Amino acid sequence: MKKGMYSSLALLLMVACFSVTQTTRAEDEPVSVEQTINLQSGTWSREENALTVSLDEQTRFDGQPTLHVVHTGDKDWALASDARIPVKPGDVFTITITGLTKNMYVSAGVILRCGEEVLSWVYGGAEVERNAVMQNVESQFVIPHGADNIAFRVTGSGNGEAWVNNVRLTRTGSIPALDLDPITLENKFLLLEFISNDGRFNVTDKRTGKTFFQREGSGVLVSDAKRTKDANGQEQIEATMIETASMQGFSTLIQLEQESPEIVVRLSAPPEMKMTNRISWPNAFESRAGDRVFLPVNEGISFPVEEDADGANWTYSFGGHGICMSFFGQITDTIDPAQSDGYLGIIETPDDFTLDLFRLTNREDAKLLMFSPHWIGQKKLFGYDRVLRYCFADQGGYVALCKRYREYAKEQGLVVPFDEKIKRNPALADGLDCLIGAANIWYWERNKLEMAEELKKAGIDRILWSSGGSGQEIAALNQMDGVLTSVYDIYQDLMDPALIEQTAAKHAQGSWPQEAWPHDVNWSDADGSYRTGWTIEAADRTKPNIPCVVLCDRQAIPYAKNRISKELQEIPYRARFLDTTTASPWQECWSPDHPMTRTEGKFWKMKLLELIGKEFNLVCGSETGHEASVPYCDFFEGMMSLGPYRVPDSGRDMMRIWDEVPENLAKYQVGPEYRLPLWELIYHDCTVSYWYWGDYSNKLPAVWWKRDLFNALYGVPPMYMFSWHDWNTQKEKFVASYKIAEPVSRMTGRVEMTDHRILTPDRLVQQTTFANGCRVTVNFSDSPYACTDGQNVAPRGVRIEQ
After folding, report:
1. Helix (H, G, I), strand (E, B) or coil at 773
2. From CA 406, how far away is CA 415, in angstroms rounded?
3. Global confidence as pTM
4. Are 677 and 744 within 8 A, CB to CB?
5. N or C, which end of the chain has less CB nearby within 10 Å?
6. Pair 296, 560: CB distance under 8 Å
7. Eight-state DSSP code of residue 704
8. 772, 747 in Cβ contact below 8 A?
9. How far apart are CA 504 and CA 354, in angstroms?
């Protein structure tokens, strides 16, 4: 992502002023002071030279000239004021803006700060809709705890233009802080203390004496709070809160489980309540020096809280390119599990949820990483109750917390081991047996059968053949023992037929359901805008890539049925890989003919995946992976490759071999100091995880050995992509790699991973244990490691005990 570009421009907005009215009370008498503040604007765009701003004397609203904004980029832009307005918590502001827009959104809001620390770059916005005609918009916001000044800001996004004026910011009153004594809940494990002025709660684990403090200040104000009892007589806390950025009210319920160290919080509001801003509650739990945070970005990543979370500062739970499982956690960072306590946040309603992982580096009391949960609208409405569960562990660290999550996932019907999948559909037995322990092979040249024979002869005897082939080739490959034949497929992208001839890859349309144009295209908004997806290089290389549009997931299944049934009549594949289905987020669709919420989008994606095994008896794979698909999907390409740390353009430039290793890839993608096998601890016996097709085992020769060790440690097979020349010149390296990376996956593919241990303080020696007794010790260091039984694990070596 490019850094934003600022340029200096002094402009008059609303002919040089907006109004701020301050209201205070002295001896119960209101005193109003009105002041006019000149707005000296700086312009900013995320794309260089994309923004121009001018005063338009010809286009006037209410007799006043307008500010004319032209943006040629697709991303966001802003006009910011240098003037700071001092505020205090509880101050209420009304903001208005009038706008005419073409192909862009415009919003008037403020930058929210505490001193010099920016708490929010876009706060309290009144948004003019895309393609609006003279729309006047008004919204209210209230200053939250922890903020002391604001600055005016107009923001927008999209390639288009807008005319705005009548922008006003008015202080209209204040909401007094609720000042109640703390309200407590208690069971034999935990003591919870609710603080009424800003809605935070602190939790003391009685078993350890440790208190988990939530951060002071939040995006809510509490207007009422009390202890009540549920229908069973269990005490709980009910509170009424206001989301400060939009002045929207909601109610909360905090319950302490009586027989477990767990807290459940529920947010409720009328389903039809508009959600113009996210709701940021509960507050973030603060970290302590020496803690570590972890989250399921693909297989799993962790960070010492003293460091930045490069690449994982913001994520979401509604698609594989976010977090692949619905949790986040924090533990004491020690290699002794008995001393590693912490908490896990389980997102019980994950379809409209985002997560920040941040540090406030300018504040001495907040320099450590912490998680901040956020609820976003369901098609711009509240929609349904939101639920978050906190589970506390007094020991066992991330492994104990993952095992608690596996219990939860079982209750949700997500844990479906391979043995259970075979019981549900015995026709998949042979295919799934071939899959477990199979190296994933991508080979693009024509002599496919010859290449497969070469692999088998060299000792690479278990193969997921992802490279497709003719009917004759696939039939012959199916006769080879240990070979599972598969083919690539996709039901996401298509293109306006008028644009296809302008692309450099006209052949790509062969994998697109072009017959869906335009009636089954996903609408990104109610104005009929098409949702855009993958971009294709233009035939004229001087022009930007041409975007595809996205097929509505609700409409995909008939296209898949038609394509797959016809293809199987000619080519007898035994597996099918559906690109993007579990990688791209669950999408809303605003088309009146096939509307969807994100939850409905997830439902239809899962129905598409279910089709592959249930109707066609094929082993099913998809990109990256997400737990919602575990009952239907058998393998994932990309689960092993942490999305933020792949090489640039890995989805397009697949065959390129990288001799230089990017810093972030070395540190995080193949860094044992940061990676954790969170997915395997929960779903190892349910799915097979592979590297990504642009991030495969042999992609970066300098770290190939590390990928082999991770394959062995996690009990998952390797992925290779190569040409005939690559194979002939590096055959010995491929065979040696396979002998390290593959065996554990075959031995353990149908059983649970029961434990993962960090054995040395530098985290370079690690060990996994599986339910069948298999134990794998891997040494990423350059020195031998002595096991407790006297055996050594060689540098860059593996020890397998069965």
Report:
1. coil
2. 7
3. 0.92
4. no
5. N
6. no
7. H
8. yes
9. 36
CA–chain centroid gap for 567, Å, is 34
Residue 253 is predicted with a pLDDT of 98
Token reading at 130: 């895309």
Residue 389 vs residues 23, 344, 399: alpha-carbon distances, Å: 41, 8, 18
Q: Quick one: how far is CA 477 from the chain centroid?
A: 38
Tens of pLDDT, residue by residue over 397-451, are 999 999 999 999 999 999 999 999 999 999 999 999 999 999 999 999 999 999 9
Omega prior to 518 cis, within 30 of 0? yes
For residues 752 and 245, what is the distance between their CA atoms, to the nearest angstrom?
A: 45
Question: What is the rounded distance in angstroms from the CA atom of residue 406 to the CA atom of residue 243?
Answer: 33
Measure the CA–CA gap between 31 and 23, rounded to whole angstroms.
6
- Tokens encoding 142: 């209230």
Of the candidates 766, 767, 757, 760, which has an alpha carbon nearest to the alpha carbon of residue 338?
A: 757
394: helix, coil or strand? coil
Q: Where does residue 465 rank: exposed (0-12), middle (13-18), buried (19+ CB within 10 A)?
A: buried
List the one residue out of 40, 30, 31, 34 whose CA is nearest residue 20: 34
Q: Transcribe 334-384 into DSSP letters.
A: -S-GGG--EEEEEESSGGGEEEEEE--TT-GGG-S-EEEEEE--BTTB--S
Q: What one-character-per-residue DSSP string does 80-117 give?
A: EE---EE--TTEEEEEEEEEEEES-EEEEEEEEEETTE
Q: Which amino acid belongs to residue 405?
A: Y
Write out pLDDT tens, residues 14-39.
333 333 334 333 333 333 333 333 43
The span from the first CA to the last CA of the chain, in angstroms, equals: 47
The conformational region for residue 412 under phi > 0 = left, psi -120 to 50 = alpha, else beta, is: alpha
Task: Indicate the length of the chain as a whole number.
Answer: 802
Q: CA–CA separation, 373 vs 252, rounded Å?
A: 15
Instruction: Please count the CA atoms within 13 angstroms of the CA of 614 that sit on its side-chain side.
Output: 10
- In one-letter notation, the amino acid at residue 364 is E
Q: d(Cα 315, Cα 214) in Å, to the nearest integer? A: 21
Whose structure tokens read 């040494």?
A: 779
Q: Distance between CA atoms of 552 and 596, rounded to whole angstroms?
A: 9
* pLDDT tens digit sequence for 217-262: 778 999 999 999 999 999 999 999 999 999 999 999 999 999 999 9
CB 465 within 8 A of CB 441: yes
Q: Are β-strands 483-485 and 463-465 bridged in parallel, bridged antiparallel, or unpaired?
A: parallel
Q: Is the peptide bond before 282 cis (omega within 30 degrees of 0)?
A: yes
Treating both helix axes as pointing N-terminal to C-terminal, what angle do 704-714 and 724-741 enclose, rounded to 10 degrees? 40
Both tokens of residue 702? 């300098």
SS (H, E, C) 475-535: HHHHCCCCEEECCEEECCEECCHHHHCCECCHHHHHHCCHHHCCCCECECCCCCCECEEEE
pLDDT greater than 90 at residue 374: yes
Interaxial angle between packed helices 471-478 and 448-458, expressed in degrees from 0 to 180 and rounded to the nearest 10: 20
